Amino acid sequence: MSVTRKHARHKLPVQLFYDNQHLKLIDFSLGGAGAELGNIQPPDSGSILKLVLIFPYNGENVGWEISAKVVRVDPKNNFIAFEFIEDESFKKFSLAFYEEMRKKGII
After folding, report:
1. pTM, 2 dp
2. Contact in structure between 66 and 90 (CB atoms under 8 Å)
3. What is the Cα Rg of the chain in Å?
4. Where are the beta strands (DSSP E) in 1-107?
5. What distance in Å separates the CA atoms of residue 35 and residue 28, rounded to the nearest whole number?
6. C-alpha atoms less than 13 angstroms from C-alpha of 12 in its C-beta half-sphere
7. In Å, what is the CA distance from 62 to each residue of 51, 75, 90, 97, 107?
8. Cβ of 34: how many Cβ atoms within 10 Å?
9. Whole-angstrom distance between the N-terminal and C-terminal Cα of the chain?
10. CATH code at 15-103
11. I need a surface site. Which of 17, 40, 58, 76 has the fewest CB within 10 A?
12. Are 81 and 34 in contact (CB under 8 A)?
């Protein structure tokens, strides 16, 4: 199966939390994120849930609680993927965060 991505994925210093548990981020894009499952009980693929994302931005840690859809759960490979549900304020912040990461040479 071939997949065309809408957004480039990057390894960024973003912290991701689901159900009050930290998940190790694998990659981040404007449209979603991939993470290690770790020790959590994986939610069902297709589920809509809340994530907390913490961004290092302008010298501070900035947190966002966002809705996301679980698009892939792969316990064998310790992987879960989320698609962010569009929110104009979060999208605007994400673009500003990307700009800061570009200026720092991280992207």
Report:
1. 0.83
2. yes
3. 13
4. 15-18, 21-23, 25-28, 32-36, 48-57, 60-74, 79-84
5. 9
6. 27
7. 14, 30, 11, 10, 19
8. 19
9. 28
10. 2.40.10.220
11. 76
12. yes
For 55, the token pair is 């961004």
Do 23 and 16 touch, CB atoms closer than 8 A? yes
**Amino acid sitting at position 76:** K
Residue 2's pLDDT is 47
pLDDT one-digit tens code per residue, 49-106: 999 999 999 999 999 999 999 999 999 999 999 999 978 898 899 889 889 888 887 7
Domain spans in the chain, listed from the N-terminal domain onward: 15-103
Q: What is the largest CA-CA distance in the chain?
A: 41
Q: Amino acid identity, residue 16?
A: L
**Amino acid identity at 45:** S
Residue that has been written with the tokens 């548990």 in this structure: 21
